Amino acid sequence: LGRPREHWAELGSTNDRALAWARAGAPHGALVTADAQTAGRGRLGRAWASESGEDLYVSAILRPDAGKPIGALGLAVGAGLREGLSRWLPAAQLKWPNDVLVEGRKLAGILCEARWVGSSPEVVVGFGVNVGRSLFPEPLAATATSLRRELGEATPSREAVLGRILPALEAALEQFFSGGFAAIRGRYEPHCALRDRDVFVDMSNGAGPKVQAKALGLADDGALMVALADGGPPRRVESGDVWLA
Ligand code: BTN
Question: What number is the ipTM of this complex?
């Protein structure tokens, strides 16, 4: 990942630039980075605060082989990202589907977007890592963290962080493309922040009410399995959102 690479002082969104570059034929592994984004996007239509100039905003173009299942790709990206960051924060955890948390606060987020060209997926994997910022705009102050907030003076440079993330990401993706989520379960599950925890889930893509449940673990296709508090058989959560109770 990273050949070729484009770096911008400011972009609307690195994902948007990568989607356009992919359409124009950029190869597997091409990478877009920016110092700041004016329209950083998160999952479920949310914004991603991107003005600091001290954090990582990265989008990679992937061209998986035709026919490979990519439904759980974001979980592989999360696992790789967490591994790269564990060099500095060994206790970092994954909150399904793919947020990286430190003591319950969000350190990094991932937004995967794909389109099909015939039977071949063209994928943009975007991630933002809070590296150097120590102040967050409300209401993020209570729920977000950064390498700076966790490590103070010992905070590594953005390039050093990216330099650890990319090889870990490559390894996780290679394993995922050869064996699906089952092949990377061992990279994900030991670091899952939700397993056996009480949670609230939104079963309808960010639009519905939060219901109380216990997180049971992940199915082989990467779906989150939960037991709803009002009983019944285990239910699958395939998209949407989940919060620790
Ligand atoms: C989330 O947690 O909801 C996902 C956040 C993803 C943010 C990154 S920053 C780089 C890339 N460009 C974007 O516009 N979004 C992703």
Answer: 0.99
